[in-house]
Amino acid sequence: MLADLKEKMAREMTRVNDRFHPVEYYRENWVKDRIILKTKAD
To answer: Where are the domains of the chain?
Structure first.
C-alpha cells in the first residue's frame, strides 16, 4: 500500500510540475537558525 501511495504522489507531483527535494535542500537553502529565509513565493 505504501509503495502504491508513493507512486500516486510521484505521478501527481509530475502532473502539476512540483518537486520534493530531500530535507537537506530546504535546511541548507531556505532556513537558518530555525528561521524561514524564503518561501515558494520568493
So the answer is: 2-36
